[in-house]
Structures are given as C-alpha cells and as structure tokens.
C-alpha cells in the first residue's frame, strides 16, 4: 500500500497542500470547520502523522455529539475570594462551554469539622463526569476529594497529600525556580539579610517557593535567619493579625522580605505604612501572583505574573483528557509564571 501524503489529503478535499500543512501545524488561515474536515479525512485515509491534538479534538467532538449536556463539578472553597481565583474559574467555564459541558459549583468549607460530609452530587458518580478541585487547602477535605472515583484534576495540593498518592492529575504553579530568581535579584541589588513570609504548610506551591528562596540564599553563602522568617501554619482568617504580631515582635529588620504572595506583601506594606516608627530601615518587598487588587503593592514590587486565563483553560482541557483516558498515568504539570521586576 502506498504511503498517504498531505497531497493525497488535499486532492481528496480539492484544496491545496499548503492548507493541509497549515491545519496540521495549527497555523492561521484555516477555519475550524475546514481544519476538522482535514483531520477527519486524514484519519479516514490512514495518514500516519495526524497530530496528537487533532486526534484528541476529534475524540472530544465525538463525545460532545453523543453527550451534549455533560456536567463537571468545580469543588471550590471561598468562591467569593480573590480576583485571582475568579479569573481562573471564568476562563475554565468558558472553555468547557465550548464542549457543551456545564460547570457545577460545589462548595466545601475552608476548614474541616466533624459534621462535614462531601456533597451527595460528588458521591453519585452518574450525576457528573469529573471534578476540578480549586482553592481547597484543608488536608482532610482534600483527602476526601482524592478518594472519589471520579476523574479528577487538582490545582495545587497540601504538602502532606502531595507526598502521598494523588489519585488525579495535578497542576502546579512553578515556584522553586521563580522564587530562586526573585531572591537572586535582591542579592544582586546588594541585599544580604533577607526574610521570608508565608505559611509553607498551607500549599505545595508555598513550600516550593520557600525552598527556592532557601537554596538561593545558600548558593550565595548567605544565612537564612529564622528571626526574619514566618513560615509556620497561619490561620486563613487571621493572616493579617498574625503577620502584624510577627512584625511587632521584630527587634531589628532585614533589608528585604520575600513574600509568598502579593496577599502577604500587601499586609506587610500596610503595617510599614501604619507603623513607620517600628521600621528602622528601608525594606524591599517581593510578592507572587501579580494580583492587581492589592493596590498598595500592585506595580510597586517585584512579583511573578501567573497566567490565570491559561490556567483556567489548562484545567478544563486536562479534565477533558482525563475523562477520555481514565486509565492513563496521572500527570504532574508545572505552569511557570514570568517575573515582573
């Protein structure tokens, strides 16, 4: 049997070979409908190099046609919280809508209590096709979600669960290398006494950022001074107070603080503005997330710009893949932000 070529596909559809090549290479100038027609004809003729993504798209289209009203659950805690999270959710819902998939909000509390049970919709496997866990950082609740038989995708995890068996795909915002580079930029600017602020037990991403900071300090033969670091468990509803208490306890200050997030940095900036008499020297702050809602630090500190829209789309597509391939090995994906100096 002769080898099928792009020209054969083009001849079968009465189009140019250039158009077929553009479709396979995801270039502009080819409509979605024609692109799908090209992929379908290529598969029909037995073309050996149909792009992997094209195959996935055709499979998803087939499932969409067979199940036009599918539903997936978004398991979320504090759904009315930061714009950072709502941007991710909005883009996720938008992407899933393109596949005729409904996104069902499933609220869980921020802190586990003995009276809590997972909502029945999650236990009834016939009701939804999969779930995405987002902004859920209680160890017990996240472990309960992890045990569900549904196809699952997690955005971040608590460190204890990360070290155990994750029964789903995990997407992490890369923090180690990014925080390493942020810390190095401070060192190159002349800082030698640098503290770190952020609960490293709350999220794996926080822990990775702390490790990046520590390794950068050691690589430059600088000491990590415990008195300048607040890394223990911090209450999610008492973050401001606990940071203020820590800053009040300082008898001397470092010249810079690496903050695990812009959320933390804005509390520190607020404290310094309110208590100038307690800050003996100028202090440089860095953050993470590039959250514009914290106006006292937005645009004024080095931070990491997390692509929230991309994250939302990536979570949706990963769940689509997982529902299509429930027995495929679980995946760990790092999405790296860009640093804004």
TrEMBL record:
CDD domains: HTH_LacI (cd01392). Keywords: DNA-binding, Repressor, Transcription, Transcription regulation. One of its GO terms (molecular function) is DNA-binding transcription factor activity. Residues 4-47 form the HTH lacI-type domain. Pfam families: LacI, Peripla_BP_3. Transmembrane segments: none annotated. This is HTH lacI-type domain-containing protein. It comes from Eubacterium plexicaudatum ASF492.
